[in-house]
Amino acid sequence: MAGSQDMFDAIVMADESRKMKVLESLIGMIQRFPYDDPTYDKLHEDLDRIRGKFKQLCSLLNVQPDFKISAEGSGLSF
Hints:
This is LTO1 maturation factor of ABCE1. InterPro entries: LTO1_adapter (IPR052436). The chain is 63% helix and 0% strand. By secondary structure, it is an all-alpha fold. The radius of gyration is 18 Å and the shape is elongated. The protein starts with a helix and ends in an 18-residue tail after the last helix.
């Protein structure tokens, strides 16, 4: 049975490693995004990539994002 536990642990660690890689990739994309340049020619492409990476991370974490806008303000609810 110890072999089964070792295999299970390896699968869990690989899954956690994948989640961390996706998270680090998303953080990097956000950090490199040119917020100060409204004339950036790849604005929409980069936003689509960030959105896709965010959706991938939510899927890996089994999280359903909730973007409801409240009547009190225009903030996002996660």
